[in-house]
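[audit] Reproducing an earlier prediction to check determinism. Same input, same settings, fresh worker. If the tokens differ from the archived copy the diff job will pick it up downstream; this log only records the rerun itself.
[audit] input (483 residues):
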Amino acid sequence: MKKALLLAALALTGMIGHAQDATAVLREADRALGASSLKSMRYSGTGFAYNFLQNWRPDAPYPKFYAKYARTIDFDKRISREELTRSQFENPPHGGGQQPLYTDTTQAAVTGDNSAWGGGSVLLTPQGFIRAALAAQPTVTQTRVGGKTMDVVSFTAGGKYKVTGYINALHLVEKVETWTPQPTLGDMSIETTFSDYRDFNGVKFPGHIVQKQWIYPVLDINVASVEPNAAVNLPAPAGGPQGARVESAKVADGVWYLAGTPDPNSQLVEFKDFLVIVESSVTEGRALANIAEAHRLVPGKPIRYHVNSHHHSDHSAGLRAFVAEGATIITHDMNKKFYEDVVLKAPHTLEPDALTKNPKKANFIYLKDKDKYVISDGTREMDIYHVENGHAENLLMSYLPKEKLLMITDIFNDFGMPRPNDPPPGLVSPYYAALDTRLKELKLEVAQLAPSHGRAVVPFSQFTEKVQGKVQAPAPRPITETR
């Protein structure tokens, strides 16, 4: 009995000492970085941005853009605002991200405690990490990285997110890593590295910041300006992700356009004994809403097939939901390794999804570039083809010969407003030109287009007006200097 009590006491002492060691490490880092004395910060720089999971093929890095970057942080409120201006870099362009950009595009994002990650973006800065770790119950271990001994401090944020920081012998944070739920990739890693620390207006801050999401970088910035304790007024962002909404519109007998939010949209086709849904969505919630709407419109028939146009995150987030539904996935052969080895095997512990809750064996039909896959019940036919283009090397389109309806993704969009990738007057987008070439090669007679991004089904004339009598626009010439 005495021995058991002694062992328990020693174990408790070891745990307390461990926590105290972590706090000591963090206090040293706090003194070096001045984290506790900062109420706010604004920093900016230039470099490169990469559009997450919009790569030309699933085994390639994300598409690269020149970037101007600015970020404002309210440490006390744990609110961050990022502003990113992107310009065309790749020539020729390969992948998504609105390429090719003929004009610069600026995007802003605000995160806070109500955001999907629980304000995690503030924690992914050196000072933000130190402040959050000191307020938590941190632990510390040591490891060797590149021949250097590093203190590895970990804690749990928001009750479920593990956050780990690597602190060097100079008490500077060199890396912060964490994991966040992502519908395609599951518990996805986010790794932010910091180097070239310098004094900026009395505060030590990294001159170089690189962030990876999954295995590829999304940001590579050289910091030029840091303003500690800047005057900030950041309103808290709206709470949580918006719920999915589906608005179905009948296109023809047994054919519906499933519009709604979040974008993109899908199409439902009824056959004699089964249903087909073309296109997934950017969230699992929207995919589940599409599935529910299909069963409402056509009760009693199973969804036998799901046509997945390509691997981009806004078109693969619902893939696992369709596997859980029991549908066979029709997609390009290029996706085989990515879907079977990554998407289906990725753990979803942070936000268990439909397939985690209802495991099922996945069934795939893989198409190669020159294949034509036909779904038919003797009365209705759907033909599925590959489209060679610069947006995604594995892109599929679906065609209903009887209805003369083409279901197309990303190559043609109908937003009803000018966009940064609209070419100058008199020129045609290279994506439109690629689709025009493919339709002429296949000799398809098209009357209507059902775009995945847009407002509704549109007449084919809306496409031909943009193509006929125009010269294909060249890609914008990259600017060689870093902005």
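[audit] rerun output stored. Observation attached for the diff report: The chain has ten helices and 26 strands.
[audit] end
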